[in-house]
Amino acid sequence: MSVNRVDRFSANSSPRRDDHAFPRRRETAPDPTPATARQRGRPPSEPLAPGAGRPLPIEIAFLAAHGVPLVLLQYGAARARLQGATADAVLIAERLVSEDVFYQALAAELNVAYVDAPHDLEPSADIAADAARGYARLPRNSRGLNWLFAPRGAEIGRLVGVTRSARGRPLFALTAPSLFEEALRRASAAQLARYAAHAVERVDPDCCVRPALRREALAKALFVSIILSTALLSPLEEISRPAAIALAIVFLLGILLRIFASFASFRKTGTAPELDDKDLPVYSIVVALYKEAAVARQLSDAIERLDYPRAKLDVKFIVECDDAETAEALRTGRTRAFHDIIVAPRGAPRTKPRALNVAMPFLRGSLAVVFDAEDLPEPDQLRKAAAGFAQAPQNVACLQASLGIHNGGHNWMTSMFAIDYANLFRVFNKGLAAMSLPFFLGGSSNHFRVESLRAVGGWDAFNVTEDADLGLRLARRSYETQTLASRTLEEAPSEFRALLRQRTRWFKGWMQTALVHCRDPSRFFADLGAARGIAVLAIFAGGIVGPLVGPFASCALFYQAAFGKLLTPATAGEAALSSLWCSVAILGICAALPPKLVAMRREKLFALWPALLLSPLWTLMLMLAAWRAARDLWLRPFHWEKTEHGLFEPPLAVVSQCQANSHCLSEKPELSALR
């Protein structure tokens, strides 16, 4: 039996009540026909509906009196029991009943006004609380209405019961939840803009970029850098030797951390048992987009392929107020999962983390994941993350999935990008997580406990690598981050200019993060502890100092080996310094090449090995990007250099595999399977 959706409400629909609906307001004469006769009179072609004989859930029972077929309601109730969701969420999420029809029928049932375009709400003192409650106060109006309601789940039943038992004219109107949240954002746009920009500052002002990157702080950092560089280049050995030893120790910290992480990445990790649908939590999917109309259809398809109950998905697309093209592309997309398109209020800075914060008060899930516009996550990624969180201790706030590249074979730059990502996510981050050390999150496919995310204030809107900063702030609040055995494919920049701009932003963000978190060393080590604090400093050393100074140090090392005293030291001091720098050179090679080969084996990227021959060019690109980032940090510290997406179609093999894995998800099960 097929189930047809209901997407139109008629106020003149003839009431059709039955034993599964709400109690009648008027008693009707019982049907004198015996039950057996009525059963024999049922048309033989109509099978018994699933759940027949069970009372309908109170949140949907009223629909039977407003033109919605009983068989559809019983179908939705059966699906809700299987998924552990509320029946209203199933009907709307699976597009069996449109949201407008549902709430128009509820308004008719309660004999109250339905507002299909709410214009006015009083500004909210607590946007998140009002969004969670599903009601807010209306300004004074001629109709004498005080409240606007948009209930969900059990709140629908409570509202029905209270309204029926109350006397007098109701003082509220109804609207759909998506319209209610839109009206709430519009009425409280100024408050929402301030919250999105300064949420982290309200939680911990000392761990925010904006107050930390004043000109005075940047001038101090520049002055220290000049002093160290001058000391390193000084002709006086009494000055240059201590500086050279300090620089070698900095390099050695980063190198040793990579070696230890590489060995730790071989540790076996257990697999969390899969959860049944009824045990899965509501999951929020958050995607910030700007000028991404070209990949809107690909994004819709990727979300549609996710293997997760539609009634437990809370999809939020955030677009900027001047990006009507992307918003329209999302509206006409093919995402059947119910979703909200949130238009960010005007304000500064215009960054991805600010857009993510705009969605924060409206997240309904206990878990949330951030995806980028071009992402292709594995269909079972949300299920794996939910199972992982269910098994992990409560202080595990984040699970980071691996990121891969689907256009890695296009040219040498995309090949090196793919190898770089494999090394980072399949070796380095995996090893750090195995050693319970902090690591910088990737900008996508990080899964959070929403409670923990709100506890740290969300994302720093002024940090251009909000992912790295958030991972460190979670660690400083005693939360842990682990890796997730799932992969998301992304698109790598294929042109040098785009690649350079992207890496410049990354380096600038890491510099921002280092300046913020290292400006109070005593608190830094008090929050993290000695071992974790040194590990973070080693990450900064390898990620910032290495690209800035590494190529120059390598040239100096080769020069000293060929023409200097590196291999023929004359004094004990020279011997110690030579031994230290030779250790840096040898261990540096061990930390660079073998982990990449391990990562290539794990990601099956050995076909890209010719790109490794151009590693020196990749190193020079990183050096150029790092110095551009240092310049940008002084001239425009909060500027966001956007990366263009949608230049490559994902490989057909990848799409076909995803479609095969999620084929059964796109089809509604037969009613007989739900009995």
User: Which word captures the global form?
Assistant: elongated
How large is the share of residues in beta strands?
5-15%
The number of distinct β-strands equals: 11
Number of H- or I-type helical stretches: 25
What oligomeric state is this? single chain
Task: Kindly describe this structure.
It is a single chain. The two termini are 13 Å apart. The model is unreliable at 14-48 and 660-675 (pLDDT under 50). It contains 25 helices and eleven strands. It has a domain at 111-187: 2-Layer Sandwich (GMP Synthetase, Chain A, domain 3). It is elongated, with a radius of gyration of 30 Å. By secondary structure, the chain is α/β, with parallel strands linked by helices. The strands form two sheets. The chain has an eight-stranded mixed sheet, with helices on both faces. A three-stranded mixed sheet has the order 1-2-3. The protein has helices spanning 35-40, 58-61, 70-83, 87-93, 99-110, 127-133, 154-165, 177-187, 189-203, 209-212, 215-232, 237-264, 296-304, 324-331, 352-359, 381-391, 412-434, 450-455, 466-476, 496-517, 521-528, 530-563, 572-603, 615-635, 652-661, and strands at 135-137, 147-149, 172-174, 283-289, 313-319, 339-343, 367-371, 376-377, 396-405, 446-449, 480-490. Helix 11 (215-232) packs across helix 12 and helix 12 packs across helix 17 (412-434). The chain is 51% helix and 9% strand. 45% of the residues are buried.
